[in-house]
Design brief:
Helices cover about 20% and strands about 30% of the residues. By secondary structure, it is α+β, with helices and mostly antiparallel strands. It has a domain of about 110 residues. The strands form 2 sheets. Strands 1, 2, 5, 6, 7 and 8 form a 6-stranded antiparallel sheet that branches. A hairpin with a 2-residue loop joins strand 5 and strand 6. It starts with a helix and ends in a 21-residue tail after the last helix.
Length: about 170
């Protein structure tokens, strides 16, 4: 349930950021999918056995004026060759955002590491995304500490830029 709430919140944040009136946001049930792995996969959390979930695809769709206007899609693969039917990015994790309008906007984002083991990762896939997520959180600490008590969203904080990424 927390994952569903988080992805719905992402769609709402995009609508707020772009000043689009949001009438309804809901997950697109037909576009949420699981794909089984055909082999055992040894990943950071342990072993995903053959026949169990090896890839997950979710979407948050903001419905505006009765049509799906903002779609945030998140595909997680435990190995890069799983779920090729979900399009580009099959060789590495991808975050895909599509905004339909004039003009249409589509953005695919990937985060990869040249040497995942150098960052301490034992993951076969997704190590760069985990590092990028941690960087945003760690670099936001000073701003969160200085903020007034209460809930904050990414829109309440300044852009936090990573330091020491080019050595």
């Amino acid at each position: 349930m927390k994952a569903k709430a988080a992805i719905l919140l992402s769609g709402a944040l995009v609508a707020l950021l772009t000043a689009i009136p949001l009438f309804r946001a809901e997950p697109s049930r037909p576009s949420v999918g699981l794909d089984a792995t055909d082999r055992d996969l040894h990943v950071a959390f342990g072993t995903a056995e053959a026949g169990t979930c090896g890839a997950l695809r979710t979407q948050a769709i903001a419905v505006i004026g009765g049509r799906e206007a903002i779609i945030i899609e998140h595909v997680n693969r435990l190995a890069p060759d799983l779920a090729p039917q979900w399009g580009e990015g099959a060789q590495r994790p991808v975050y895909r955002i599509r905004i339909e309008g004039e003009p249409d906007i589509s953005c695919d984002m990937t985060a990869s590491l040249v040497d995942p083991k150098a960052s301490g990762s034992v993951m076969e896939s997704g190590a760069g995304a985990m590092v990028a997520t941690a960087m945003r959180v760690v670099n936001a600490i000073p701003y969160v500490v200085e903020a007034k008590p209460g809930l904050l969203s990414a829109l309440d904080l300044p852009l936090t830029l990573p330091r020491n990424v080019l050595r």
